[in-house]
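User: quick one, fold this
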Amino acid sequence: MTGIEERLVGGLTIRIDRTLCVGFGDCVEEAPAAFGLDDETLAVFVTPEDVPRQVLLDACASCPVDALTVLDAAGRQIVP
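Assistant:
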């Protein structure tokens, strides 16, 4: 896996930019059901659809290198 991974979750587009991710794991600590780290120590989706919206937003906002972004249904970036 490389590049950008996206998931549509409850009207939000969650994007992982794996070229920016450095594997700090803050997203995993905030929402382990939503995100994990792969064998390259880069963020991957687990089951973000099982995580409450605010927890998911907080997990995305916790990324210190802004590798996680969230777009609303209109395509506007709301995180970071």
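User: anything notable?
Assistant: The mean pLDDT is 96.
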